[in-house]
Amino acid sequence: MKNTIAAIATILVFGLMAWTFSKGGAYHGGEHAKGIGSFTDATVTTQVTPAEKSDEEKDAEQIKALKEKAGNIGNFKVSDEYKSKCAACHGANGSGEQDGRKLMGPKLYGQSADKIYKDLTDFKANRKENVIMRGLLINTSEEELRKFADEIGEFPSRAAQSNQ
Q1: Where are the domains positioned within the chain?
Q2: What is the pLDDT of residues 33-81, one digit of tens each?
Q3: What's the pTM?
Q4: For residue 101, which phi and psi values (nearest 5 degrees)?
Q5: Cytochrome c domain spans which residues (predicted)?
Q6: Rounded to whole angstroms, what are the CA distances from 31 to 23, 25, 81?
Q7: DSSP letters along the chain, please?
């Protein structure tokens, strides 16, 4: 039974291929390709005028200018542990953004080391529910949690030093 169904399907596929080929090369431009002609024969020159920028492009330029004016908080080094465990959700600099788009995790930049440490221990103990954070922290020691908290708490001072 399986062989009969496979044979019928194969015959059907080959039949459709032959029918398509007989209609004039549908996958090679067909009749429409014959009407274009050669692009090298074109004698008409067109002058391209710059299009007006969309509102989104204007907004993006303004945001970029503001960031440059305010200083970039991402110019400081972070540990490899932070990069591997935290940066994907909270950003490389703890801003909660990456390349102008909002990330999944909230902004950590500017929070105190003690608050970060309390939040991390709460996530690990499941007093604050977040499956991702619990999964990342379940095998993390208290000493490592303190190191993460201290590093994140130092972000503003690191940014200030790198902007000088």
Answers
A1: 74-162
A2: 555 555 455 555 556 566 677 777 776 776 665 555 444 445 668 888 8
A3: 0.53
A4: -115, 145
A5: 58-156
A6: 9, 8, 59
A7: -HHHHHHHHHHHHHHHHHHHHHTT-GGGTHHHHHTT--GGG-----PPPPPPPPHHHHHHHHHHHHHHHH--TT-S---HHHHHHTHHHH-TTSSSEETTEE-SSPP-TT--HHHHHHHHHHHHTTSS--HHHHHHHTT--HHHHHHHHHHHHTHHHHHHHHT-
